[in-house]
Design goal:
The chain has about 450 residues and is of the alpha+beta class. It has three domains: about 1-45 and about 80-100, Up-down Bundle (Monooxygenase), CATH 1.20.1280; about 110-175 and about 185-250, no CATH class; about 275-435, no CATH class. About 20% of the residues lie in helices and about 40% in strands. It contains ten helices and 25 strands. It has helices at about 5-10, 15-20, 25-30, 35-45, 70, 80-100, 110-120, 200-205, 245-250, 425-435, and strands at about 50-55, 60-65, 120-130, 135, 140-145, 150-155, 165-175, 190-200, 205-210, 215-220, 225-230, 235-245, 275-290, 295-305, 310, 315-320, 330, 335-340, 345-350, 350-360, 365-375, 375-380, 390-400, 400-410, 415-425. Strands 15, 16, 17, 22, 23, 24 and 25 form a seven-stranded antiparallel β-sheet that branches. The protein has a six-stranded antiparallel β-sheet with strand order 5-6-12-11-10-9. The longest helix is centred in the N-terminal third of the chain and has 22 residues, at about 80-100. The protein is globular, with a radius of gyration of 27 Å. The model is unreliable at about 50-65 (pLDDT under 50). It holds the Pfam family F-box-like. Keywords: Signal. It comes from Rostratula benghalensis (greater painted-snipe).
């Protein structure tokens, strides 16, 4: 019942975020909150026009455009859209400036963490039940590594696993980032779909990777770990491992329903000499368990020969060989994956997160992933003279390649040694990258 003129006067005192929120109340508020006069004032205060005149009022001075058609000739909401587009462009420019310098070891931007903070990027998961109802889980712990970010969600109000159909992982950025304060969860935000996982038949869509006294862990591709309470078979926590490569794009440029599509790859000129299949590849490898880092290293000048190193649809890159004990590496600490909820904490042994960043001979990211993996006790005993102990193996596979790790546990020093590390790159991946036919 309040007159529109009075509502417009009230709305004129609101900031941009509050104005966008009040426009969601009803259709009448939406149309009033689109008023060009209000938004032009907000726009002018943030992006001052080049040609202005001073318009004196009783107690204030403000800047307005010279052209009166800025109000009369524009459709309602024009200046709101202009303000939003310019704010988004300003944030994008700031982020692009941060991601421009590259780390020579990883081939990735040096300031990924700063760029994510500049865009106010966060991540949420949305659980959808079989009736179509969505449950949004916001609360998360975030930890940054050299080449990935680990996000852990836990809640006291998880829906029952039996009624859930899908889990969606979104990157979320505020529509109007404010660098002076933390982004409000109630303000307007944009979602970008990163991945979708099916939970209806968890045993068919996931791999059991480990357990402790309280929880059992299941891995879903790509890079998601689901922790279930053993006694109730209900969700305890969800952990996502997100590799920095293309993470900003996937977390901000997709829509709420469609994932961001990577630009088509243009094959690079294959200038390898006749003796080698691949050469001068570099690997950056991180092995961590959430808060603890077990290994962080760079391996240079990897290559494979065209003969024996290409078989069964894969090209083999040997990083660490059993035959060369000078390259065998110890791991810091006992491997395990840390988790926590509101009430409990734990560590699942023989599980960890593996971050692989493989660069081609030009230094460009060729194969990148971050994923939870587990170790399996081998039935074979160590045949190495320098290491007498149990052998453990870790294997990871995706459409682009495989990673095989062999470790020996030394009881005397209570540490693991990596004695064998081999990457197998899919020939389809290589042929697509270079436009060749291996």
């Amino acid at each position: 019942s309040m007159p529109s003129e009075m509502l417009l006067k009230i709305f004129s005192y609101l900031d941009a975020v509050s104005l966008l929120c009040v426009g969601c109340v009803n259709k009448h508020f939406y149309h009033l909150a689109n008023d060009n006069g209000i938004w032009l004032k907000i726009y002018s205060s943030c992006f001052r026009p080049k040609r202005t005149i001073w318009k004196m009022k009783s107690e204030q001075t403000e800047t307005v455009p010279l052209d009166c058609g800025a109000l009369c000739d524009r459709k309602p909401g024009y200046w709101k859209k202009e303000y939003i587009f310019k704010q988004i462009a300003a944030v994008k420019t700031r982020v692009m400036r941060l991601v421009k310098p590259l780390d020579p070891y990883t081939g990735l931007p040096c300031k990924n963490k700063e760029a994510m903070k500049a865009s106010s990027l966060s991540w949420i998961i949305v659980l959808k039940d079989k009736n179509g109802k969505e449950h949004v889980i916001e609360k998360a712990n975030v930890s940054f590594k050299d080449t990935s970010v680990t996000v852990l969600w836990y809640s006291t109000d998880w829906p029952c696993l039996a009624i859930l159909s899908t889990l969606k992982l979104f990157g979320v950025v505020p529509l109007l980032p404010d660098q002076s304060r933390d982004p409000s969860k109630n303000g307007p935000r944009r979602r970008s779909l990163i991945a979708e996982y099916h939970l209806a038949d968890l045993t068919a869509s996931s791999v059991a990777v480990g357990a402790d006294k309280l929880v059992q862990l299941f891995s879903l591709n790509p890079g998601l770990l689901l922790g279930l309470w053993k006694e109730k078979n209900e969700i305890a926590f969800v952990m996502a491992s997100l590799h920095y490569h293309q993470l900003l794009e996937r977390s901000t440029l997709g829509s709420s329903t469609v994932q961001y599509a990577l630009p088509p790859h243009k094959p690079v000129l294959d200038d390898v000499d006749p003796e080698y299949g691949l050469h001068d590849y570099n690997l950056h490898l991180d092995m961590h368990g959430g808060s603890c880092t077990y290994l962080c290293g760079t391996f240079k000048s990897l290559f494979c020969r065209k003969g024996s190193d290409i078989a069964n649809g894969y090209l083999r890159l040997t990083v660490i060989s059993q035959k060369d004990n000078t390259k065998h590496l110890p791991l810091v600490g006992t491997l395990g994956l840390s988790w926590e909820t509101d009430a409990f904490k734990g560590n699942v042994k023989d599980c960890y997160v593996m971050d692989v960043t493989l660069l081609d001979e030009t230094g460009k990211p060729f194969w990148c992933f971050s994923a939870p993996v587990s170790m399996e006790l081998s039935s074979e005993a160590s045949s190495l003279y320098d290491y007498m102990g149990h052998i453990y193996t870790t294997e990871y596979t995706d459409p682009e390649g495989k990673v095989c790790v062999e470790l020996v546990w030394l009881e005397e020093t209570r540490e693991y040694f990596i004695v064998n590390l081999v990457l197998y790159i899919s020939t389809k991946k290589v042929n697509h990258w270079y436009g060749t036919n291996y």
